[in-house]
Predict the 3D structure of the following.
Amino acid sequence: MEIHKLISELQYKAVRSSGAGGQNVNKVSSKVVLTFDLKNSQTLSEDQKALLEINLSTRLTTDLVLILNCDEDRSQLKNKEIVTKRFLELIKKGLIIPKERKATKIPKSAIRKRIKNKKNVSQVKQNRKKPDLD
């Protein structure tokens, strides 16, 4: 995966931020919205696209477009850098193939130890009872 080609496929849009900030919020478009069209990406292979579609399914639209927002900073340029870093981290995490879990058998010694412990606890509780005088 070539990062520079991937970044060239991104589309940025500057939008006015919501929330507190006074008159500055009404004048300055500092919020950055990043969009990435996964389906039409030339950089990613078909296998990578399928893997990302599965791993990022909750973050993708129905048209397989990833949308990320950033309005943390007052500077549009910093917000653009932040959202690009987030995007790259998201793609890297999405491309990781998790190792398959190998089922292991419980050792017999562990089973014996558990049963012995249960018997000891049971015996302690039996000893707490009043003795039968019959």
